């Protein structure tokens, strides 16, 4: 099992989860974070820290899409170990659903 970041993080990217991760397995994209599934030790400390419930165990994901997204982008985006810049409009995106079309393939600037 591993934990995954899902679409609720898109354009929110609060990053509270990053500071509690004991193995630094978060990677930062332009508008979302991802977890490297091979680095995650399944401790679960990140899950309750996410204010938008974007982090879930892979057993709670309906399909493999989010495992594939986390795996793909963790391999090419920069590792993040501290809270960086939270988008100014994060609160406006917090309650939005169906955000997957907004997922940027670009790494954090």
Characteristic terms for this protein:
Alpha-Beta Plaits; two-stranded antiparallel ribbon; 109 residues; 13% helix; alpha+beta
Question: What is the structure about, briefly put?
Answer:
By secondary structure, this protein is an alpha+beta fold. The chain contains 2 helices and 5 strands.
How would you describe what is shown here?
A hairpin with a 4-residue loop joins strand 2 (26-28) and strand 3 (33-35). This protein has a 3-stranded antiparallel sheet with strand order 3-2-5, with helices on one face. A two-stranded antiparallel sheet has the order 1-4. The protein is an alpha+beta fold. The chain starts with a strand and ends in a 16-residue tail after the last helix. It has a single domain (3-82), classed as Alpha-Beta Plaits (2-Layer Sandwich). It has helices spanning 65-74, 90-93; strands spanning 3-5, 26-28, 33-35, 55-57, 79-80. It is globular.
> What's the end-to-end separation, in Å?
30 Å
Q: How would you sum up the global shape?
A: globular
Counted up, domains total 1
Mean pLDDT: 95
Q: Which percent range describes the beta-strand content?
A: 5-15%
**CATH-defined architecture:** 2-Layer Sandwich
List the strand order in the largest sheet: 3-2-5
> What is the level 1 CATH name?
Alpha Beta
Low-pLDDT stretches: none
Q: Structural class, judged by helices and strands?
A: alpha+beta
Which H/E pattern describes the elements? EEEEHEH
State the total count of DSSP E strands.
Answer: 5
Q: Number of DSSP helices?
A: 2
């Amino acid at each position: 099992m591993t934990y995954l970041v899902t679409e609720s993080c898109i354009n929110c990217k609060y990053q509270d989860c990053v500071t509690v991760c004991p193995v630094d397995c978060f990677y930062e994209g332009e508008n979302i974070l991802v977890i490297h599934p091979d680095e995650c030790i399944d401790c679960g400390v990140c899950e309750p820290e996410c204010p938008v419930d974007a982090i879930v165990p892979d057993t709670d994901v309906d399909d493999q899409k989010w495992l594939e997204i986390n795996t793909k982008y963790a391999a090419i985006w920069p590792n993040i170990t501290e809270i960086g810049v939270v988008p100014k409009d994060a609160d406006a995106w917090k309650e939005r659903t169906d955000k997957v079309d907004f997922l940027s393939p670009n790494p954090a600037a």
